[in-house]
Amino acid sequence: MSDKPAAAVPPKEMQLQIDLDEAVAQGIYCNLAMVNHTPTEFTLDFIYVQPQQPKAKVRARVITSPQHMKRLLVALQDNMIRYETAFGAIDLGKLPEGPMH
Q1: Which domain holds residue 52?
Q2: Fewest CB within 10 A of the end CB: N or C in the chain?
Q3: Is residue 58 part of a domain?
Q4: Which residues contact 42 (CB under 8 A, 6 or more apart)?
Q5: What is the pLDDT of residues 24-54, one digit of tens each?
Q6: pTM (global) more than 0.85
Q7: Using CA atoms, how far apart are residues 81 and 77, in angstroms rounded to an integer?
Q8: Using CA atoms, how far apart are residues 47 and 97, in angstroms rounded to an integer?
């Protein structure tokens, strides 16, 4: 028997296969998002607001963990930097007043 410690076995690399059905692949258009949170999760509602209409419809809701939300935020920031580097700065114009800011 050897006094040498056993070499650590590297974990097997898993390849994730993602299924994207045709309806989801088409995507949806949204022009408003609302973000809410509790101590254990974030909820993102993606909404389409029609001009001059008093009612809007939530088209998708995503509920995720705080850790995943932070990773998503970092990925969004990284992609925005790369987008603006390639295509120029995005002008937000005048931001609306209200509870979202």
Answers
A1: 27-87
A2: N
A3: yes
A4: 35, 36, 63, 64, 65, 66, 69
A5: 999 999 999 999 999 999 999 999 999 999 9
A6: no
A7: 6
A8: 18
